[in-house]
């Protein structure tokens, strides 16, 4: 069984994330969505909320493709998470050249720690290249329309969360 790991903070989950997930599913039998506990980023949504959001948004994708999707929170090193879920493939999405430089370093470090896990880069679809969770939160905070960047459910949750702040 080919198991892939697609890690991220998913704060919130965007249509760009869904695009990468949809395409990654064609590469593996099981796709583990690793929801990172990254205290340094100061997420807007709790870990539990982000896991629930990812599970809800991925359920239709798994159903339409027949690929198993598992959501797995993690706080350890990415390469250790890959071992924990028996992944032999890490999936990373790239939006721009600047993403590549950071990801290139990460691959080198991961390979130094474990050379039996490959990393695959998927370029964001042209319609989704500008989408970043950080920017979506900023647009929503300033009252902009985020419907082109996230699902209706995520948009609703995001707007509600920002009203409470």
Strand and helix layout:
Layout: E1 3-8, H1 15-24, E2 30-36, H2 47-65, E3 68-74, H3 78-84, E4 89-94, H4 97-113, E5 118-123, H5 133-141, H6 152-164
Parallel strand pairs: 1-2, 1-4, 2-3, 4-5
CATH superfamily: HUPs
What's the overall average pLDDT, rounded?
Answer: 93
Count of helices?
6
The CATH class assignment is Alpha Beta
What is the molecular shape? globular
Taking all Cα atoms into account, the compactness measure Rg is 15 Å
Side by side, the strands of the main sheet go 3-2-1-4-5
Say what the CATH topology is: Rossmann fold
How far apart the termini lie comes to 44 Å
Largest sheet: 5 strands, parallel
Number of domains: 1
Task: Quote the beta fraction.
Answer: 15-25%
Order of helix and strand elements from N to C terminus:
EHEHEHEHEHH
Keywords:
45% helix, Rossmann fold, single chain, 165 residues, 6 helices, 5-stranded parallel β-sheet
Structural description of this entry:
This protein has a single domain (3-128), classed as HUPs (Rossmann fold). The chain is built from 6 helices and 5 strands; from the N terminus they run E-H-E-H-E-H-E-H-E-H-H. The chain has helices spanning 15-24, 47-65, 78-84, 97-113, 133-141, 152-164; strands spanning 3-8, 30-36, 68-74, 89-94, 118-123. The protein has a 5-stranded parallel beta sheet, sandwiched between helices. It is globular and about 45 Å long. The model has no long low-confidence stretch (mean pLDDT 93).
């Amino acid at each position: 069984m080919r198991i892939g790991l697609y890690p991220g903070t998913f704060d919130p989950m965007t249509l760009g994330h869904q695009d990468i997930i949809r395409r990654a599913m064609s590469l593996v039998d099981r796709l583990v969505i690793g929801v990172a506990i990254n205290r340094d980023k100061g997420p807007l949504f709790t870990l539990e909320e982000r896991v629930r959001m990812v599970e809800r948004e991925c359920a239709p994708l798994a159903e339409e493709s027949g690929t198993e999707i598992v959501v797995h929170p993690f706080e350890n090193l990415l390469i250790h998470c890959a071992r924990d879920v028996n992944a032999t493939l890490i999936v990373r999405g790239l939006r721009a050249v600047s993403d590549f430089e950071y990801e290139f370093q990460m691959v080198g470090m991961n390979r130094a720690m474990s050379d039996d896990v490959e990393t695959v880069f998927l370029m964001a679809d042209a319609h989704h290249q500008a989408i970043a969770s950080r920017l979506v939160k900023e647009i929503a905070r300033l009252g902009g329309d985020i419907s082109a960047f996230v699902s209706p459910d995520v948009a609703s949750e995001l707007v509600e969360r920002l009203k409470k702040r």
